[in-house]
Design goal:
This protein is of the alpha+beta class. The chain is built from three helices and twelve strands; from the N terminus they run αββββββββββαββα.
Length: 168
């Protein structure tokens, strides 16, 4: 099971790079979410959202996949560098649901990554929500909310599941 999760997460990491080089890329927008499919990848599609500040700098990037073989939803979140890692990250959905202790698995030159499987409880909250926020801590101890939209998330997830299941 860990091996499948590792491969699924690797696919999420490599998909944007493969998409930039491949000519066989199809994208479909669902409000604030984009489903990107690359025919050569198995499973072929992921759902994405990137949030930038007013200067155009990325502050959070979210990618979710769906693996029909084990019905898993691998999730990759790229957060800014300079956050404090030990307390983990808190995901809040509409001030109604909280998912504490999300673990940052590693940091790259572009940012720090959360790589995990989304639970059914998390998926349910995200589907019902209108906005989410990853709460991180800065070096001076301040909590910072990295807000993202859930507008279009349910439709994007439905497309993702349908496309990846059909490609099985």
């Amino acid at each position: 099971m860990l091996r499948r999760l590792t491969w699924a997460l690797a696919a999420l990491i490599l998909l944007p790079m493969a998409g930039a080089q491949a000519q066989d890329v199809e994208t479909k927008t669902f409000k604030d979410w984009v489903v990107r499919c690359v025919a050569q990848n198995k499973p072929p599609c992921t759902a994405h959202q990137q949030v930038a500040n007013d200067k155009g700098q990325q502050i959070v990037a979210i990618a979710m996949g769906y693996n029909p073989a084990d019905k898993a939803y691998p999730l990759r979140v790229e957060l800014p560098l300079g956050i404090v890692l030990p307390p983990g990250v808190l995901l809040k959905v509409d001030e109604a649901a909280e998912f504490p202790g999300l673990v940052v698995t590693r940091c790259l030159a572009s940012g720090c990554l959360i790589e995990m499987r989304a639970s059914e409880e998390m998926l349910s909250a995200l589907r019902k929500g209108t906005k989410g926020a990853f709460i991180v801590r800065t070096a001076d101890g301040k909590a910072v909310a990295l807000v993202f939209s859930l507008s279009g998330f349910s439709a994007a997830l439905e497309e993702l599941v349908g496309r990846n299941t059909a490609a099985k």
